[in-house]
Amino acid sequence: MHAEARYVPLVQAGPGRPNGWWISPAVPTIANCALAVLWAFSGLGGWGEAAFCGTGTGHDLQCGADFATAVSASLPVAALAAGIGVAAWTTPSVRHRPQRLDALLATAAAVWMIAEGILFVGGYQAKP
């Protein structure tokens, strides 16, 4: 009797998920980056203030000050979201476990949405 040799790969091309579904971690990573850029342009880049308080001669100074308060309130939440996203990729025990990576990247995206929500509600309340 001759035993047949069989190749068994030691490394998968992509990490498997227990339920059979697999989405590249690039998708939530790109979503997190897009949300971060949106928050930065809205909060720090002037988009939010221009949208809620006007521009040029129509700019309301009190609204601008109130919107700055909303940005200040949103900043720690945005920093938390950024920290979670960075930690997901820099912590080996998370990066090498697909379920943990998915969970942290999804959590980071949710926290970015909360930060955006704070800007929106604060801007809406600041609006003249």
Helix/strand structural class: mainly alpha
Task: Tell me about the largest β-sheet.
Answer: none
Query: Which regions have little confidence, pLDDT < 50, spanning 5+ residues?
Result: none
Give the proportion of residues in helices.
Answer: 55-70%
Oligomer: single chain
Q: Mean pLDDT score, rounded?
A: 88
Q: Proportion of β residues?
A: under 5%
Gist?
The chain is mainly alpha-helical. It has helices at residues 26-44, 47-53, 61-90, 92-95, 98-126. The protein is elongated and about 90 Å long.
Keywords:
single chain; elongated; 128 residues; mainly alpha
Describe this structure in words.
It is elongated, with a radius of gyration of 22 Å. The N and C termini lie far apart (88 Å). It has five helices and no strands. The protein has one domain. By secondary structure, it is mostly helical.
SSE blueprint:
Blueprint: H1 26-44, H2 47-53, H3 61-90, H4 92-95, H5 98-126
